[in-house]
Amino acid sequence: MESVLIIGAAGQLGSELTQELANIYGGENVIATDINPQALYKFDYCKSMVLDAMDKNAVSKLVKEENVKQIYHLAAVLSATGEKNPLFAWQLNMDSLLFILELAKEEKLDKIYWPSSIAVFGPNTPKVNTPQYCVKEPNTVYGISKQAGERWCEYYFQKFGVDVRSLRYPGLIGYKSLPGGGTTDYAVDIYHKAIAGEHFVSFLNENTYLPMMYMPDAIKATIDLMHAPKEKVKIRSSYNLAAISFSPKEIYESIKQHYPEFTISYSPDFRQGIADSWPDSIDDSRAREDWGWDHAYDLSKMTEDILKHLPSYSF
To answer: Is 133 in the active site?
Structure first.
């Protein structure tokens, strides 16, 4: 049987995307891998193993032995974490992608999925309804690596026919895993603090708007893109993707509807500068036109769903 490989499966996106892929292809045909052996407990419904995305020989061996035909390459150092060790972030984010693209070319793999991010945009990018094509000039190593990665993805499609597909995710919000070192992670942590009855200190100003998306919408968009006919995938760098935009103050107010005693204060740190360089909202009309993308959750619906389900999760 042909297999689907997820690299970096234990992260925020991978934890939920892997489950959906197992639902589609069957757990026996899905291989969840991560560098952290302690995180593999999440994947009792499919195959799982420890794998270092930088270990080219191990990845290549696994692809050949398991007859892998699709790879979801999710391993990355995120924005805030990357600024603390930029050279390592560049090495991991770029070298691992280039190896996967080469492997896809050599082994004639069916499809590659690689996530990009709104971090590709920069302070000179139009901030409202940021278009698909515009000035980028990112000023974080994470954003620089994602912009370079987009160009490599398109290059491998144009030059070698590698069917690589990508989405520029906004900030992703889910309740099934803990924050992973991104600038938008406040919008995950705030729900944990509310349910625990703790005061929340936001590292962003109250009126800092950022594009956001609830995880079920992000999973749906990823699967929809990967299942779209090849001729409908007309952008091979990465598609803009959007759902909702809100500020820390607005998400706090949505939570207070359910937890009236919840309190917040604001203490911006270095992540404020990162957020200020990113868009307020995204124009994702190309994704909606090309392969029928549409989102299901607004802020109030997302908050209600998270507060309903998060208490049952322990970390």
So the answer is: no
- Which of 72, 142, 186, 191 is catalytic? The answer is 142
Read off the amino acid at residue 46.
Answer: C
Residues across the chain: 315
Q: What is the tens place of the pLDDT at every residue in 159-174?
A: 999 999 999 999 999 9
Query: 3-state DSSP helix/strand/coil percent for the chain, to nearest 5?
Result: 50, 15, 35
| CB proximity list for 128: less than 8 A, separation 6 or greater | 279, 280, 281
Residues in a beta bridge with 282: 130
Give the β-pairing of 116-117 and 47-50.
unpaired
Sheet hosting strand 244-246, strand order edge to edge: 171-173, 210-214, 244-246
Q: What is the mean pLDDT of residues 239-250?
A: 97
Query: Which two three-digit tokens encode residue 60?
Result: 């290549």
Instruction: Tell me 282's DSSP state.
Output: B
Say if CB 31 and CB 6 are below 8 A apart: yes
pTM above the 0.85 mark?
yes
Contacts of 312 (CB under 8 A, 6+ apart): none
Distances (CA, A) of 191 to 167, 188, 213: 26, 6, 15
pLDDT at 314: 58
Q: How many CA atoms lie within 13 A of 72 on its CB side?
A: 30
Closest CA to 122 of 106, 134, 109, 107: 134
Dihedral (CA of 97, 102, 103, 108) sign? positive
d(CA 77, CA 249): 28
Structure confidence by residue, pLDDT tens digits, 72-103: 999 999 888 999 999 999 999 999 999 999 99
